[in-house]
Amino acid sequence: MAKRTLSVELNRVEGDLLVKLEIEDGVVTDAWTVGTTYRGFEQLLLGRAKKDALVITPRICGICGTAHLYAAVTALETAMGCAIAQNGTRVRNACLLTEEIQSDARHAFLMFTVDLCGPRYAGHPERDKLHEAFAPFTGRVYRETIVETKRLLEVVAIFAGQWPHSSHMVPGGVVGAQSRRSLVKALSILDGYARWYERTVLGCSIDRWLEVRSLEDLDRWIDERPEHRDGALGLFVRVARDVGLQRLGRGSGSMLSYGAYFDPARWQPPFTERHCLRAGGFHDAATSRIEPFSQADVSEHVKHSWYRDHAPAHPWKGETVPSYEPEGDKYSWAKAPRYRDNVVEVGCFPELFMAGDPLIESLYRAEGVDVFTRQLARLHRPALSLSLLRRTLLDLERDLADPFYLAPRDVDEGDGAGLVHAARGALGHWLQLREGKIARYQVISPTGWNASPRDSAGVRGHWEQSLIGTPIPDESDPVELGHVIRSHDACLVCTVHFVRTGQRARFGAC
Fold this sequence. Notes:
Blueprint: E1 4-10, E2 17-24, E3 27-35, H1 41-45, H2 53-56, H3 65-80, H4 86-112, H5 127-134, H6 140-152, H7 154-160, E4 169-170, E5 173-174, H8 180-202, H9 206-209, H10 215-224, H11 226-230, H12 232-243, E6 255-257, E7 260-262, E8 276-278, E9 281-284, E10 289-291, E11 298-301, E12 336-339, H13 348-354, H14 358-367, H15 371-398, E13 414-422, E14 425-434, E15 437-444, H16 446-450, H17 462-467, H18 479-486, H19 492-495
Helix pairs in contact: 4-6, 4-7, 4-15, 6-8, 7-8, 8-15
């Protein structure tokens, strides 16, 4: 059969994404992922006062604004070399953990599992249970997720005043101390969410779930009790493996995590080591080794992106100057980040793998990274993060009399890197201060890593590699494509860099 081209615009990916596929005999043989809008946040920041970044960058995304704020304030602190109040770091971690926990549930049950209720799976034996739990707007888990995650976000509002687009983090800590009453309220909200997650998602206590440390343990756990089997997680596991999600979306193989949640006591100047509560690193698929992460080894390529050409460059040397060319080799507003010239996957699975989580390590040894293991990791992580959030709040309560802010000395010159772990993976802000103003600002979002176009050597980005080999039995309903992309919890609004051209990128027929 002759090759043909199919172009698909995906929804439920937090932004605009066009995927061009080359298909032969019902299988994807090549792929191009296209970010279709330009957003000029890097350009907006040039020449502004340094603290403007704390107000502007949280607006990059309405879903992970806390992560962008954390990255921005960390970039300033590393450039200024200022000490950070331990309680300030705890408050930041608590807000980011809350954002992550609610994001994992919203993605799992509002973005991903709804595809299992589509026409492709109408004949599945578990169809009625899938619809009862996951059907959009009517499914029980779908509806409860909206209510419970909204309530959980009140924790961020307690500390930050609002969510999204908070601006409570400043160099040296956070604005405003906390009272014991506010911590008691935050703990009450957290415990209520944890009870819902145990009852509806896990079907067991968090402690019991954390005893699951391998695929074999998972099989035994599912058979142990009806609540395990028919809870949201158990239902997902049974159906996902039955329909073969473990055979989709393997991708590049290499993984990257900056590390997650700074250690309040140890993350201090001169910031030469990344002291994180969840360790980071680079997993090289060629050597099967985990190596320490160094931000100096990050570069961005623009040969196939709609920007003014320049050689691959570290973010402190790169630029974001749009140059739209509808014809030629360029095809995306996303850049192509690389780590030591490697295409890498970032996200929940890499984060937990680098941190040494036993279940994730076992899944990797058993079958690597795929659609199923990514999504299982995203349902597993809240059990870990709810426990970490509770410990963080209790630490705050214990040390409530300690400062939440340490006044920094004013520094007008410096280079800083704010590298945090957002819900979707490794997020980095790089800035340069000159005469008290922002002279350069570059953002690499998690989806920037995953959704990158080809690089200067013509090497496909991670999603592009993940799609090759994917069967598409029904081109009018390419649900497999959605499974692969959505398993990464895609966020295109953070990734593409906004300008009106009066044109839209198009490849072939949709």
